[in-house]
Each structure stands twice: as C-alpha cells, then as structure tokens.
Amino acid sequence: MGESNEDMFSGIPFGLWNLLYISIMCLNQASAPAQYYSSIFANIPVDFRCSTNVTGEKNITFDNYCHVTSANIDSGEYNESLNNCTTYEFDTSQVSSTFISEFQLVCDKAWIASMFVMIFPIGSFIGTFFLGASDKWGRVTVIKISSTIHVAGILFVGLARHVYLVLLGRFFIGLTFPIFIGAGIPLSLESVSPKHRSTVSFMIMLPFYAFVMLLGILAYFIREWRMLYLITSIPMFPVPIIALFLDKSPRWLIQQGRVDEAYMVMQKAAKMNKGTVDFDLTFIKMELSNNSDEHNSASNSIFRTTATIKTLMSQLYGTTYMLKLSFAIPTLWFLSAIVYFGVPLNANNFTNNPYLYMIMIGAAELPAALLGPLLIKYFGNIKTGISLFLITGCCMLGTLLVTDNLWWIKWIFAILTMTCSGIIIGKCSLLTSEMFPTVVRSTGYGMSFAAYYLGFFLSSLISNMKIVSETWWAFNTICGVCCVLGAVIISFLPETHGQILCETTNQANDRKLPESKSKYMKVNMGDETELSHVQS
Predict the structure, then answer these.
(1) How confident is the model at residue 53 (pLDDT cuts 50, 70, 90)?
(2) Confidence of residue 439 (pLDDT cuts 50, 70, 90)
(3) Range among 28-32, 109-113, 242-246, 277-281 rated most confident
(4) Which residues pair with 522 in a beta bridge?
(5) Read out DSSP for 65-103?
(6) In a 10 Å sphere around its CB, with 0-12 CB exposed, 13-18 middle and 19+ buried, how is residue 430 labelled?
(7) What PROSITE patterns does the entry give (predicted)?
(8) Where in the chain is the domain with CATH 1.20.1250.20?
C-alpha cells in the first residue's frame, strides 16, 4: 500500500491538524527536563547537624555528623558512647528546602535520596516493555491513558507528604514516559509528509532544550524543590485534555483494516488544513488483503499469543536486513544514551554551579534542533550520523589531552559534545521511525527505548563507580569509544532521508536493493525531489 498510503498526504498542506499531534509531544518534552534533572536541585548536598546533643544543648555548627558522643561518669569511671541522631537541622542559607532536608534523608536514610534519582530510569526501562500496546489499542488511546497517569505521578511528587508516595510518583512518571513517547513520536511523524519529517523530528526536541535552560534559570530564583518541580512540570498538565481532541492515526486504522475510517480522518485533516484528499480506497484495500498476515501481527501487546510472537520474531529477525536493523538501531540508542547522559552526570569536570551548568546544557543543545534538519537535508541521515559520532568522540577524547590552564578549550569541547549528542538523539528517533516498517514500528521503538534507558541507567552507574571517579581518564574514554562504535554501526545502515515510510517488512527489505531495482525511487517533481512507489 506504499503509494496510496503515502500519497494521501500529498494534497494536504501542513497545518492545524498536524500541529495538534505535534503539540502533545512538544508539551511532553517541555516538562521532560523537570523529570530528568529535578534530582540535581532536589538532592543538592547541604550541610546538616544534629538538632540537639545528648545534654539537650543546641548544636551551633553544621558538622555533618550522624552520631553524637555522650559522656558519663559511672562508679568513678569515665565512659563515652555514640548515639544515633534522631532529628537533623539543615543549612538553609543556599536553598530553603530539598528532598533530602524535607525527609531527613542523611546517614542511614541516604539511600532513599539515591532512589529518587534511580527510580525514574528503572520505571522507564520497565515501561518500554509495554510500548506494543499502541499497536494493539492505537496511538491516541495509549496517549490518553499514559498522559493521565503521568500527570498523576507529577502531582504525587509535588504534593505527597510521605517519602514513599513521592518515590511511587517518580516510578509512574518513569513508567509512562517511554509509553507516551513510543506512541507520540510515531503518531507525530506518521501524520506528516516525508519532506516535513526531519523538521518535525527536531521540532519536537526544541522545547526540551529550551526548558533545560529555563530549569536552570528558575532554579536560581526558586530554592524550594517542590515549587520548582511543579512549575517546571506545568506544560504536561494540558496534554490529557488535548488528547481528547486527537483523531486516531490513519496509518494505524489502515493496519487494522479500518480503511473507511482512515479516509474520514483524512477528510477532516484536509478540511482543517484547507487541502484535498488523494486516497485510493480500492488500492489500499487490495494491498491490505495481500499483506493480511503481516498486518494481523501488528497487535504488539505483552499479551501476544505464541503464534503472534513467532510472526513478530519472523518480522524482526527473519531476513538479514531486518536482523541488522533490529540490532543496529537499539545499539545506537544505547551508545548515544551513555554519552548524552554522561556529560551532565560527569558535571564536576566542568563546574560546581548546577544553575549555570543547566543553563549551559540547554544553550549548547539548542542549536541541535536548528542544525539537525539542515545537516540531514544536505548530507542525509547516514553521513551526518557518522560525522556527529566522530566529532563527539574526538571532543570526549580530546578533553583528556588538554591541560587545566587551557580551560576554555575544555569548555569548547564540552559545548560541542552537548550539541552533537543532542542532534544524535534526535537522529536516533528519526531513524527508528523511518527504518522500521509500520507493522513493527512501535516494537522497534520499544527495543530502542529499552536500550536507551539501559544506557541511561548504566551511565549513571558508571559515573558513580569509585574506580571510575578516581581514574580521571576513564569516563571520557568510555564515552569516546561509544562514539566510535556508533559511527561504525550507523555506516552499515541504508539512507532513508526523504523516503516514504514502509508499511511492511517486505517493503523495508526492498531498501537494501540497488536503486534501479527498488520499489522506492526518487522522482523529480518540479524543484523538489519527492518519492513515489514504483510498481516493479
């Protein structure tokens, strides 16, 4: 159904109908910095002291002691003993309230503060196993459910007065985060024509970079962690309401055999965007019938039958090309996540000021949303990806060769690393949408996000390992090697820039053929190069 399925967008200009889909992802990404980086400000280390000593006298210094010494004379003998401190006071000269100070998470309770950081990637990793639900129940349905739970989790974190309820909220935010993105990104990219796809992919990331900067600015003025968290999470609140007005994905409806409904959705899109529908119902139904076995396997929930699982495994690994694709794309996400999160997690190499550092991260990544589409337009996905991985690797490894007195060179390398890694993350999302066919696209995102959050978790684990922190060259070397591996892996993938989205694995396999034999050929259309499905 390649030609008609893609051509149905040819008569519909980009407009309000597309923006509704894109807006929910932009709002989600605007609130994402609060979820990823809130722990930096919620867990700011502050000095503490025991509220009182054993004699009941007020302690006047913040000595960070977990125990107090008591002394007594018994039968003429002088005895000393250590007693646990039961309540603590925290230095509020820099911040008025943190997650640590509010719940007294020091000494024997310090592990709970660490869980505030780790529970998010743990929940996200688990959530990736539910991504197939959007293939079974539809992208929009999953967005409605996951966004509602996500907002509830935000309210738990911002308002709950019990520490374990706060952690539960963080877990549900992490759990629903990949589920929402796994449905939202394909929905956004499936709703636009190929010439707009790379622009939309990076447009979605733009709010994230902007709100990383805003998080650093607001954190400087708002020193109460709950207020800061709730304010920076506000963009996510209207998403469940907006989702009520979204139409079901035309592509998903076609995969379910509901072609007439898809046609009605496209009519609505054409009316809203002031365009026309070029949609061959007869051809679509014929193609759907010819590929019925593959389309029926698109219900990728965790409750698949054995037969459906076998069919899915055949789709993902049944050919050399799909096997290569199913290995390469998640691996690129994994390697990219290690580098992308490694830079902020290794923040002590750049500055001890978290406010300035967050502003710098956002400022450095902001060009990624602007440069990404341009680089892809002129150089394609693969050449751009290879170059960015190599530049990032050179920056990470080059930092090891720079002496401390040349601090400004290290800052240049750091800024280049953040900019390039930001473009790489956007490119991974684009490649996943463009390379995986519709019948397994959500599953492809599921595998990719699982690898991504595994890389996030591993990056935080490595950065906190004692042997790594004590070896000044270790972390940069690991990140540099990851970039070189990424450049090698992406070089084996086919170029997909500007090509139509594949519906079936058979169509995806055609991409490995020489251009003269492929069903996907470039055809000159005036001043622009478009892609059409040529019958072979």
Answers:
(1) low
(2) confident
(3) 28-32
(4) 531
(5) -SEEEEEEEETTEEEEEEEE---EEE--SS-SB-HHHHT
(6) buried
(7) MFS
(8) 2-44+100-533
Burial classification of residue 433, based on how many CB atoms lie within 10 Å of its CB (0-12 exposed, 13-18 middle, 19 or more buried): buried
Average pLDDT over every residue of 123-130: 87
- Do residues 10 and 3 lie in contact, with contact meaning Cβ atoms separated by under 8 Å? no
Here the tokens at position 12 are 């519909």
- Distance CA(451)–CA(506), nearest Å, equals 25
Distances (CA, A) of 406 to 146, 348, 414: 48, 17, 13
CA nearest neighbour of 90 among 79, 105, 77, 75: 105
282: CB partners within 8 A, 6+ apart: none
Question: What DSSP string describes 246-288?
Answer: PPPPHHHHHHTT-HHHHHHHHHHHHHHHT------HHHHHHHH
195 neighbors 376 (Cβ within 8 angstroms):
no
Cβ(5)–Cβ(284) under 8 Å? yes
Place of tokens 């119902």: 281
Q: How confident is the model at residue 284 (pLDDT cuts 50, 70, 90)?
A: low
**pLDDT tens-digit series, residues 513-532:** 434 334 433 433 333 333 33
Residue 308 tokens read as: 């459906």
- Alpha-carbon distance of 50 to 68, in angstroms, equals 8
- What is the three-state SS of 506-520? HHHHHHHCCCCCCCE
Kind and range of the H or E run holding 532: strand 528-533
Q: In the predicted model, what is the mean pLDDT of residues 257-281?
A: 74
CATH fold of the domain at 2-44+100-533: Growth Hormone; Chain: A; (1.20.1250)
Tracing tokens 């900067």 back to the chain, one arrives at 213
Q: How far apart are CA 425 and CA 12, in angstroms?
A: 29
Average pLDDT along the chain: 78
In tens, the pLDDT along 197-212 reads 777 877 887 898 889 8
**Tokens 């037969």 label which residue?**
307
Written in H, E and C, the secondary structure of 351-409 is CCCHHHHHHHHHHHHHHHHHHHHHHHHHHHHHHHHHHHHHHHHHHHHHHHHCCHHHHHH
**Cα dihedral sign, 475-480-483-484:** negative
**pLDDT of 522:** 40
The structure tokens listed for 159 are 């308002």
Q: 332: Cβ–Cβ under 8 A, 6 or more apart, which residues? A: 428, 431, 486, 489, 490
Residue 26: how many CA atoms within 13 Å on its side-chain side? 15
pLDDT band (50, 70, 90) for residue 320: confident
